[in-house]
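User:
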Amino acid sequence: MNRKTSQKNIRKIQKMGGTSLGLTLPVELVRDLRWKEKQKVRIKRVRAGLMIKDWKK
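Assistant: Predicted structure:
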């Protein structure tokens, strides 16, 4: 399904399994960040929402 440009980055939060929730990211955004499948990321709560960063040891 093709979306209008104004609605391209609107996503739904979906239930995955029992208690987990998931969100799909636009593939263009993931490619720009050079993220790979099964890559670990760190999620931090900030005032305006969430910050997702690459996980580092």
